[in-house]
Amino acid sequence: MKPFFSVIIPLYNKENYLKNTLNCVFNQTFVDFEVIVVNDGSTDNSIKVVEEYKDERLIVIHQKNQGVSVARNTGMAHAKANYLCFLDADDLWKTNHLQVFYDTIAKFPEAKMYCGRYVTQISKNTFINNNFIDIDENYEGYVTDFFKSSLINRVALTSAVCIHKDIFTEIGGFDPALKSDQDLDYWIKIALKYKIAITASTTLTYNFINANKSLSKDNSKYHKLTDLNQYRSFEKDNKSLQAFLDIYRIEYGLHYYMLGLKEKSTEYLMYVDAENMNYKTRFLLKLPPFLLNGLLTVKRKLRNYGIDFTVYH
């Protein structure tokens, strides 16, 4: 019998987090689901943790290490349900997560992507509530301007998203060539084509502890990043999309500048609308790269103590 949800968990060396993550799934109050764990070539004891679970709803797929995009795509290709939920192996759902999605889908069936609300954990004892522009705290329903609402905090976060499988059938999955912000690229494609709805309940804790979700020195020079200019024709008539893309043009450009790669930095920054580049960013781009790297190190250390901020807004 076809389950209502397929829960897709890409897995690569998460043994210290995995048990709590799997428990939060199998403890859901809504029980009509399957769990697809895609083992992306883990070299630690992650699989031993998975093997402790004997639930018949659990499916484990093994593949050689190919990255999180391929792992998620593998899970989507094998999913039996019409609604696909994603969960990273170090994030946590509340027990009503799937029930909330089920209720929202029933009320707003025209959407193809459903976004749950979430809190972000940046240190052991620090949790940040995320708000979205023009979306009230208790609002449930269709999102009228996805890109404007995502200018401060993203409306769509991978572990808090549910999509209809039609999306995978019609536009494919995550781009396996991208090594950073694969989800960003996918949500943009979805938001340009499909209706989106948001839940009223906060049901995810997003683990950002010691995480480097931005570009890093180790991979920025060599890894392909999202081609934001592929959306140029769309943003001409969509100022919200332009402002949203400019945030990431600035982020990528700033990081390449810090690496001393001025040509690549310029590739992103040259298309930024002047109105979307604030004084903080202009000031930082006047500093030498070595000083910016030092400031970034301090920023990451402060996050470990529960202090976080951004220069992009």
UniProtKB/TrEMBL annotation:
Classification via Gene3D superfamilies: Spore Coat Polysaccharide Biosynthesis Protein SpsA, Chain A (3.90.550.10)
Keyword Transferase: yes
Glycosyltransferase 2-like domain span: 6-132
Keyword Transferase part of the UniProt annotation: yes
GO function terms (MF aspect): hexosyltransferase activity
Any Pfam family hit: Glycos_transf_2
Keywords: Transferase
Protein name, UniProt field: Glycosyltransferase family 2 protein
